[in-house]
Amino acid sequence: MENAAKDTIRASRVSGTEVYADTGEHLGHVEDLVIGKRDGRVRHAIMSFGGFLGIGADFHPIPWSMLHYDTERRAYVVPVTREQLLGAPRFSSADEPDWEDDAYHRNVTTYYGVPPII
Fold first, then answer.
1. Which residue, 32, 31, 21, 17, is CA-closest to 83?
2. Which terminal residue of the chain, N or C, has fewer Cβ atoms less than 10 Å from its own Cβ?
């Protein structure tokens, strides 16, 4: 049985962690997390993609269930390509979505083909 304590991390340490496609291509980094207010479950990792030093970057909510931590790389790996990200739900810092909108969460999970956490 796996030691659950070794499988925990503070949210502040997740922010900034690099994200790679399962093909090895660097995609961006985790900017933030979206967490359920009542149940405490992580719903999405907000990934920063594109831009330079955070300027002009788009933010992509990726369902948390899709991220897998690679201990050797010390990064998260997702089964997503750069091309998929280009068509994925995203937002800029000027137009952040309403995180309390269940339809928005369903849109994100439907795009990636994973069950919603609502």
1. 21
2. N
Q: Beta strand 58-63 with 75-78: parallel, antiparallel or unpaired? A: unpaired
Tell me the domain boundaries of the chain: 9-112
- State the Cα–Cα distance between residues 19 and 69, nearest whole angstrom: 9
User: What is d(CA 56, CA 82) in angstroms, rounded to the nearest whole number?
Assistant: 17
CATH of domain 9-112: 2.30.30.240
Q: How far is CA 78 from the centre of its chain?
A: 9
Q: How many CB atoms lie within 10 A of CB 39?
A: 8
